Amino acid sequence: MKPVKLGLLGVGTVGASTAMVLKNNAAEIARRAGRSIEIIQASRRSIANGMPAGCDNISLVADPFEVVDNPGVDIVIELIGGYTPALELVMRAIANGKHVVTANKALIALHGNEIFAEAQRMGVNVVFEAAVAGGIPIIKSIREGLSANIIQSVAGIINGTGNFILTEMRDKGRDFEDVLREAQQLGYAEADPTFDVEGIDAAHKLCILSSIAFGIPLQFAAVYTEGISAIATEDVVNAGELGYRIKHLGIARRTDKGIEMRVHPTLIPQKQLIANVDGVMNAVLVQADKLGPSLYYGAGAGADPTASAVVADIIDVARTITTDAQNRVPHLAFQPDQIVDIPILPITAIHTAYYLRMSVDDRPGVMAEITRIMGDKEISIEAILQKEPAAGVTRATIIMLTQKIREQQMVDAIDAIAGLAAVHGPVHRIRVETLDGD
After folding, report:
1. Percent of the chain scored above 70 by pLDDT?
2. Which of 60, 61, 203, 281 has the most CB atoms less than 10 A away?
3. Helix or strand or coil: residue 270?
4. Per-residue exposure over 205-235, b if at least 16 CB sit within 10 Å of its own CB, e if not
5. In sequence order, what E strands does 300-422 have?
6. What pLDDT does residue 437 have?
7. In this predicted structure, what is the pLDDT of residue 18?
8. Tens digit of pLDDT for each residue in 15-34?
9. How far is Cα 387 from Cα 101, in angstroms, rounded to an integer?
10. CA 308: distance to chain centroid?
11. Which one-letter DSSP state was computed for residue 344?
């Protein structure tokens, strides 16, 4: 059987690692794919930087469009990232009848619907395992391994940078800005860390997971997104005293009224396995009706883990390259005509519990005012922790945990509490999830 010929777009960290995996594991890959797989052409901005050692036989060009237009290329590997020119390159590759493997979560989250529609029309595959959680095969697990199940929810630590920051804040008592600087020095965070610390990267990934789990169109704009930059060290300490840990989670949940899609800091019980996923590691907890809960854990980023997922996708495409397009695994797990537009719930309609932190005057009657507001809004209090002020300080810190309520109730209560003369500064709120399938 003739070899499968690849065109590689981008020879950065992941691209170089992908080339080396294909070279070093060539015999094992051929055994699995049933044919050899080889890169015949690659593109990178600076040709002078060349290819990794041992890959000198690969034709290197500066123009990526030369690769996607190469008639000898069967599969295009898009590892450039971003939207431009990645979208144009992928659409051109599809128009040329080439299969595509990509690790570009932003591209899939924002443009996946049009990409998959065109791929379906042209009878080619577009696969993207490496776009979510690095080397963890979470897309394949949901799309194929759990295909007999109705997926009830997906909750994950899907950004290693944020998880590293929160772990350091908890274990060493450091503040957010201090740890962020270290994350940048270590290469975990970009010079502009906005996508990581404000939740945008995680929202891209959750958008993709939601579509595959529930058979809905990709809807990045509908994901409620909140980052970790407002988390204070004292919140991390308070959470620990209450038996919780703070994690930045992406949560997608099926409800009777629609689908929840939200990314935000979350208190979760210390006993939960996912609460003990630390550093730059990722983990995704899936609740399915027949299997029950299952946890997928591993490296969510890095050259070799990401290349592992990229090459696995290449092997999958190579196995099915001669298969009729109608008999391949659907791009978004469900047959294209079975993708349904289930309503996405606004954040104000979700039901969850809450952690509240507020600074108040240390005098009698203040707690009664606050609990009266909570009662008026029909909010039950699970626990109260009062941090006594130091000598000579006239303000105390109150910590509350509530039972599960609708978010709009909490918003209304916070507005009323913040309006009290005895309350100073904002009322800090973090959502609480038990992740036990309820």
Report:
1. 100
2. 203
3. coil
4. bbbbbbbbbbbbbbbbebbbbbbbbebebeb
5. 351-361, 381-387, 395-402, 405-406
6. 67
7. 97
8. 999 999 999 999 999 999 99
9. 53
10. 18
11. B
CATH of range 4-135+303-338; options 3.30.830.10, 3.40.390.10, 3.40.50.700, 3.40.50.720: 3.40.50.720
CATH code at 138-299:
3.30.360.10
Report how far residue 2's alpha carbon sits from residue 320's, in angstroms, rounded to the nearest whole number.
14
For the stretch 340-366, pLDDT in tens is 999 999 999 999 999 999 999 999 999
Residue type, 241: E
Cis peptide before 85 (omega within 30 of 0): yes
- State the residue for tokens 């600087």: 181
End-to-end Cα, the chain, rounded Å? 51
* Residues recognised as catalytic: 205
Q: Which CATH number applies to 347-432?
A: 3.30.70.260
Average pLDDT over residues 1-9: 95
Q: What value does the mean pLDDT take over residues 106-131? A: 96
Distance set, CA 170 to CA 23, 167, 174, 176, 201 (Å): 42, 5, 8, 10, 22
Residue in 125, 245, 229, 133 with CA at minimum distance from that of residue 179:
229
pLDDT band at 388 (very low <50, low <70, confident <90, very high): confident
What is each CA distance from 402 to 278, 280, 382, in whole angstroms? Answer: 26, 30, 5
- pLDDT at position 46, please? 87
Instruction: Tell me the H-state helices in 173-272.
Output: 176-186, 194-197, 200-214, 233-241
Q: pLDDT tens digits for 33-87?
A: 999 999 999 999 988 888 998 898 999 999 999 999 999 999 999 999 999 999 9
| Residue-range domain boundaries for the chain | 4-135+303-338, 138-299, 347-432
